[in-house]
Amino acid sequence: MKKEQGGKNDIRQRAEAQLAGLGEQEPELSPDDTRKLIHELRIHQIELEMQNEELRKTELELSEARDRFIELYDFSPVGYASISAEGIIMQANLTLARLLGVERSRLIKKSFPSFIAGEDQDKYYLYGKSAFTAKHQNHSIGIRLKKTDKSIFWVALQTTVKKDKDTGCDGLFLSIMEITERKTAEAILEKFQSAARKTAKGLLESSEAHALNVIANARDAFIVMDAQGNIIDWNPEAVSMFGFTKKEAIGRNLADTIIPAKFRKAHTAGLKHYVETGEHKALNKLMEISALHKNGNTLSVELSIVPLREDDSVTFNAFIRDLTERNADREKLVRSAKSLRKSLIGTVLAIAKAVEARDPYTAGHQQQVSHLARSLAQEMRLDKDVVEGIRMGAFIHDIGKIQLPAEILSKPGRVTDLEYLMVQTHCQVGYDILQDVEFPWPVADIVYQHHERMDGSGYPQGLKGDEISLQARIVAVADVVEAISSHRPYRAGLGLEAALDEIRKQRGKFYDPVVVDACLKLFAEKRFAFTT
Q: Is residue 201 within a helix (H) or strand (E), and if so which, with residue range?
């Protein structure tokens, strides 16, 4: 502020000095002229203040625009630099400094060619020379750079010539994008393509006897077709798989031989399109499809058709594997998994009944909690398998009570402090019983954590918030709603409204707010009711 005031005083002094230098005598003014002059001066002052305000706004907008540009410049995913005609780095953004592994302040005044990998130095020299002399301003090239730790990486380098009025050119703007992953992928792809070409060429040019021996003893069916899809070779495995002898198969169109009717048109069109354009969608891909046996039966196969273009001729090599045995094994595994799950569920139900048999006052409690917990999980749109795990965990969430004396479980009055401490051990006991059982769901954790609370006031571990599994947070809400609603040895049931009022009051403190909201919505819309 002082600086601004000082500037104004300086301008005033210079203006007065300039006026004095004019040597003009100030005229005599009448009162009316004086009033008019004062009015004009006030108007002029207001105009100057308005202009000054506009200038301040413009300056602020320019400052904000500059800040936005600097942010975009520095944090762009592309490295930017400005270099002189001699290759000296004059400016660079943070991205380029990060790519090169050096602080930006230490990058300035460095020679950009010093960061070019040795094997690309000549390439960059010729490229830079052409960038200065070519008619077009934008030039791009793929080269390798080296970091300060000597590691090499690929970049796409694009340059724009900086024009100078006197010399015509005073340097280059560089944009640098890392393409190491792309180059690696291209190298791998080229390696595979080269190997594929060599393999295909080897099959055609190597010893005919050796090639035929490989094909004849292959575990997969190997079929060669001409450009029209007509079979020109058919190995013994193809005979075994599809029932046609080699003599019967040669000359037939593959589509009419093993391809189901509904796929024939697309198959033929795909081959024709490749022959005419070299483009394809389904070739060189492994596909699981249905194929036809000579006797009309359908079998599942894995098919890959590889095109081979030599000069003006095209052939197609089909590799086919019978999946009948694999699919049968898969079905056995599925049946076995279903059987195992069924056994686990049976075990869970048996355990639940054993617990409730010792506690007649809470008979059915676990079942009711399980039903509500499942409905809550479904309301929250959880995955079906997660929902099933919550249902199972809720079904035996009180399994640890099996070690409590029946007298405590059925005590008509309130339990003593010591007895309450014993009751609290049921979470740990339940976890100890279940932790080595290989459930496909986190059942042991649900049992262990269903008395934990969001604020850390629960037991046995005092977990809070997301430290408690979502499954356990769901069971906790279902457990307290059912417990308050139903009769207990020491009190009559308080009813559903009292239970919902409890979770509403403790929403976010004891109970997960998302689970509470789902529960309140279920009951409000009358989409859930406890069974009697």
A: helix 180-205
Domains 218-322 and 332-524 share a fold: no
Nearest CA to 251 among 267, 228, 280, 268?
228
Q: If DSSP codes are grouped into helix, strand and coil, which group holds residue 373?
A: helix
Query: Whose structure tokens read 């079929």?
Result: 223
Q: Smallest Cα–Cα separation from 518: which of 397, 386, 375?
A: 375
Choose which CATH entry (3.30.450.20, 3.40.1010.10, 1.10.10.10, 3.40.50.720) describes domain 218-322.
Answer: 3.30.450.20
Which amino acid would we find at residue 492?
Answer: A
Look up the pTM and report it.
Answer: 0.44
Contacts of 81 (CB under 8 A, 6+ apart): 89, 90, 91, 92, 93, 96, 112, 173, 174, 176
Provide the 3-class DSSP secondary structure of residue 531.
coil
> 3-state class of 53 per DSSP?
helix
Please tell me the total number of residues recorded for the chain in this structure: 532
Q: Which of 354, 351, 405, 368 lies closest to 493, judged by CA?
A: 368
β pairing state of 313-322 and 298-310: antiparallel
DSSP string, 218-262: -SSEEEEE-TTSBEEEE-HHHHHHH---HHHHTTSBHHHHTS-HH
Q: How far apart are the first and last CA of the chain?
A: 81
The structural architecture, per CATH, of the domain 77-178 is 2-Layer Sandwich (3.30)
3-state secondary structure 313-359: EEEEEEEEEECHHHHHHHHHHHHHHHHHHHHHHHHHHHHHHHHHHCC
- Tens of pLDDT along the chain (532 residues) come to 455 555 556 766 776 677 666 665 666 767 887 788 787 778 878 877 888 888 888 777 777 767 676 666 777 778 888 888 888 999 888 888 888 999 988 989 999 999 999 999 998 888 877 777 655 456 678 899 999 888 999 988 888 877 766 555 578 888 888 888 878 777 776 776 676 667 666 655 544 444 444 444 446 888 898 989 999 999 998 898 899 999 999 999 998 998 888 888 888 888 888 888 878 777 888 888 888 999 989 888 888 888 888 777 888 888 888 887 777 777 787 777 777 777 777 776 777 677 667 666 655 788 899 999 999 999 999 999 999 999 999 988 988 888 777 777 777 777 788 888 888 888 998 898 888 877 889 999 999 999 999 999 999 999 999 999 999 999 999 999 999 998 776 677 789 999 999 999 999 999 999 999 999 999 999 898 888 6
Nearest-Å Rg of the Cα atoms of the chain is 41
User: Distance between CA 469 and CA 454 in Å, rounded?
Assistant: 11
Tokens read off for 133:
């002399």
Cβ within 8 Å of residue 429, ≥6 positions away? 399, 400, 402, 403
* Whole-angstrom distance, CA of residue 365 vs CA of residue 350: 15
How does DSSP classify residue 171? Answer: E
Architecture of the structural domain at 332-524: Orthogonal Bundle (1.10)
